[in-house]
Amino acid sequence: MIGTRIQNLRHQKRMSITELAARAGVAKSYLSSIERDLQSNPSIQFLRKLAPVLGVTVQSLILHETSDNKTEPIDQEWVQIIQELNELGLSKDTLRRMVRQLKSREALTYEQAQ
Q1: With a threshold of 0.85, does the pTM exceed it?
Q2: Same-domain pairing of 54 and 88
Q3: Torsion over CA of 98, 100, 105 and 108, rounded to 10 degrees?
Q4: Could you say which of 16, 50, 64, 88 has the lowest number of CB atoms within 10 Å?
């Protein structure tokens, strides 16, 4: 079901439900009820907010086009950025730490705004 797909994508992105809700601008309680399949028919507007944060299209959420056998192509601009960071000597571990720091800052900023 769609809730399970959303939850799996969120886990792949290593995001908490709080973080996804904050980034997408949706209610955490509603997102939770969707993920647990208590509500199984989210609106297109809701999916439009989630999809870009999860890095997928609304269509792939609805039709489940991104299965284990099919992966979405990587944006070549991202590949170029990663190559440039690698050429600068930035390790994967350092980049992961930077991402975690940015995520924690975004969470703090969101919590401060509440």
Answers
A1: no
A2: no
A3: -170
A4: 88
